[in-house]
Amino acid sequence: MASHPKSHIQPLDPVWERITEEAEEAVRAEPLMGGLIHKTILHHKGFDAALAHRLASKLSSVEMGEQIMREIADEAFAADPDLTAAARADIVAVYERDPACHRFMQPMLYFKGWQAIQAYRLGHWLWTQGRHDLAYFIQMRVSETFGVDIHPNAVIGRGIMIDHAHSIVIGETARVGDNVSMLHSVTLGGTGKEDDDRHPKIGDGVLIGAGAKVLGNIRVGNCSRIAAGSVVLSEVPPCKTVAGVPAKIVGEAGCDQPSLSMDQILQTTPRS
């Protein structure tokens, strides 16, 4: 029996298969959504093309049209497959950690946190290619469209979940590890006018509560928790929980992977 050329073998893509199955079911259940779902998902042959289309439709403006944005995204995804691999990991992260996410297709269609992170990744790729003005343009459009402001020089890992995603700010020299979860109104910022390494370094598996501010070139250790509303001004050891203004260690992280469990309850010792 003659074997088929390798070029004819389509790579497995479980995330995309799951998305298309859900999309077909959604159209059957709500035909009025058919136009949007076909245009965003079912019209495309693969995840990369669908993501490029979604970002182009969201980031385009009268200043830069959708076709140009689509060409930029297509170029980036062809040059660096890690961009769309990270996007898939982010979808899985949202599905597993956000109780409001019941289908893989929801982030691509509706969730601005996931969409903003993928747009940031596109801008970051442009930044690494030395195309700074175009990266700044995308940063501006992400801020205008999603209410999320991430400098394109910031480095962010994969498996990221940003819940609600309103008023997120991540500065130029910030570093965010893998499998990090954060809620709305989080700031990873500087403390002054220094023009050097001035932003936080967030380890893997960290959970950052709503409204938390982490300021300065400080390290937040792996698998730690930052309570909602805290202002963190000093180093956080791994596997600890910090809370308050300014934040102080109030206990252990409470579990091995706070960012995965999304447990934000501070355990207190009852008085005798």
UniProtKB/TrEMBL annotation:
Per the database record, which ranges form the Serine acetyltransferase N-terminal domain? 15-119
Q: What is its pathway?
A: Amino-acid biosynthesis; L-cysteine biosynthesis; L-cysteine from L-serine: step 1/2
The family note in this entry says: Belongs to the transferase hexapeptide repeat family.
A single Gene Ontology biological process assigned to it is: cysteine biosynthetic process from serine
State its Enzyme Commission number(s): 2.3.1.30
Major enzyme class: transferase
Please give one Gene Ontology molecular function term for this protein: serine O-acetyltransferase activity
Taxonomically, the superkingdom here is: Bacteria
**Reaction equation(s) it catalyzes:** L-serine + acetyl-CoA = O-acetyl-L-serine + CoA
InterPro entries assigned: Hexapep (IPR001451), Hexapep_transf_CS (IPR018357), LbH_SAT (IPR045304), Ser_AcTrfase_N (IPR010493), Ser_AcTrfase_N_sf (IPR042122), Ser_O-AcTrfase (IPR005881), Serine_acetyltransferase (IPR053376), Trimer_LpxA-like_sf (IPR011004)
| Alphabetical keyword list | Acyltransferase, Amino-acid biosynthesis, Repeat, Transferase
Q: What is this protein called?
A: Serine acetyltransferase
Q: Which GO terms describe its cellular component?
A: cytoplasm
